[in-house]
Amino acid sequence: MQTNGAYRTPAAPAQQQPSALGWDQRPQQSQAQPQYQEPAIQQPAVMAQTTGTHWPQFVNNNRLIGALVAGFGATQLATMFGYWIYGLGIMEGPLDFAFFNGVILTPNATANEAGFAVSQWFAGMGFHYFNGMVFALAYALVIFPWLGKTHTTSSNLARSLGMGMFLATASCGWWIPALHPEDVIGIDPGFFSINLGWGTVLGVYLWHVVWAVALGLFFNPQD
Questions:
Q1: Domain total for the chain?
Q2: Sign of CA pseudo-dihedral 58, 62, 63, 65
Q3: Mind telling me which residue stretches traverse the membrane in this protein (predicted)?
């Protein structure tokens, strides 16, 4: 302060000198800008289901339709396998269940010049598919529920394979020997169709394995 008589005049405030190190030591205001964040999108409590048909769920709610589709699909695949089986070297010719059924249904059908009875074949093929679908219905609507609930595809396949092995055994043990005597197919099938050759017996079982696997995959509900 300077004194001037009785009054004192206040001295000017001292200015802060710059730092000897060359920068200002006063606290600087932060220049950082807040980062932009996108607003969170709320997710619905229940997500929308994907489009399309989920076959196991459909079969759960529509056992009859599922059994019919499974029976037709399984019979179609097994029938093709029967016509192609001789390519595996197991049999000398195809395993034609349509012919077998036709011989039973229309034994007096007239053959054409090539020795082929067209009406006999069509009658046998229609009855063949009818049988395949009826057996599938019996499996799906009677046997399957009787065995209780199932939760896996492997357990469903085990059930359908059991059905297929039963039908194969019935075919070799009774159907072929009883309904196809020597005067029809030219040879006596013998016990368990052994006289037709082990290749034929093996072919019958493989045919039913294909049918059973297809049946178990098509009719595959998850309880």
A1: 1
A2: negative
A3: 64-86, 129-148, 160-176, 196-219
Give the tokens for residue 139. Answer: 């499996």
Of 85, 79, 123, the C-alpha closest to 102 is 123
What tens digit of pLDDT does each residue of 49-82 get? 545 558 888 888 899 999 999 999 999 999 999 9
Tell me if 23 is assigned to some domain: no
H/E element, 214: helix 198-218
- For residue 150 the two structure tokens come to 């199932």
Helix (H, G, I), strand (E, B) or coil at 116: coil
CA distance readout (Å), 199 to 62, 84, 100, 101, 149 = 39, 14, 17, 20, 37
CB burial of residue 93 (10 Å; 0-12, 13-18, 19+): exposed
Phi, psi of 27 (to 5 degrees): -60, 130
Whether 104 is covered by a domain: the verdict is: yes
Contacts of 122 (CB under 8 A, 6+ apart): 102
